[in-house]
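name: query_chain
kind: protein
chains: 1
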Amino acid sequence: MYLIKFIDMHKIIIYGFLMLIALSACDDVNKLQLGEITNPVLSSEVANKTIVLTDETSDEAFDSFEWTIADFGFPSADPEYTLQMDFEGNDFQSAIALVTTFDLKLDTINALINQKLITLGAEPGVATKLEFKVTGSVHNDVIAESNVLSATITPYEIILVYPKIYVTGDQNGWSFIEDDLLYSVSDNEIFEGYIYMGADNYFKMSYQPNWDSADAIIGDPDASGTTGNLQVGNWGGNNIFAPDGAGVYFIKANIPNFTYSIYKTEWAITGDFTSWGFAPMTYDEASDTWSLTADVTAGGFKFIANEDWSKVKGDNEMDGILDKGTDENNIVIAEDGNYTITMDLSQALYTYSVVKNN
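structure:
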């Protein structure tokens, strides 16, 4: 899939240059004279159908989607289209992209639609009402939207395989290993994860577990390796620098926006048994986990990074999978005792365990 994006990227660069010239004479994008926008029209035989997907039909073709050209009244405009899918009535607030392309059609198979449905949060074996639309854009603030199509689709159960990119650098001898990965859990080309870095550590990212393709490599366009901007392709430009010495770093790569963020983390537990102060956890490089053994009183707790209340994790479903911390998702310990609490941030889904020692 990345090859398609890289081919399209050349069009983005050319058009971006033309737009930059036009925008340079304007105070903002609203003053750019684009003319009247004509929205694309989306069509598909999937509209108003009830479809049951099965493992046996996973390789069969799904009904194709087609759309007309979005016209922005700008001679050089070459829109990029995103076909979106979301639950009915959700107004595409949590939509997942089925494709991002400069083409006017999507041909796909049942397996891809099923994967996207499960990633979106649809329940296997349950008929799910869905909506589809396509957007065309020539700028983040200049978007044309199509009509909405509806369908009811029942997905089948699968083990989710999340999109991933490799982190290769000084920390692993510039190799490509399964321990150093960033994942896109929402399948939206935004990858994140926690990687242990050594002192004076430089790295790059890659769609492939090798150096075979210059287009697969992701880095920083500036020699400093600290700009927060991404270069995708042409060997990724320059290495990215982990600035704060050895430790576990949170890395987030937003491919659509060509940006990244990175910061070193130190984790602690905060909760009723600490009066919501901070009990530091210990990182074990061999198991790639954080842990704390302590006497704990009954009550709730959360995990917190860098004593920063914007970097808190709790558990919405009490299922051992961590979620972004809220006022409502404390992890609950039912009775007093000595516990070992362990957190694993090395996989696509962040997990934890609570074990009572006595």
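note: Residues 1-31 have pLDDT under 50 and may be disordered.
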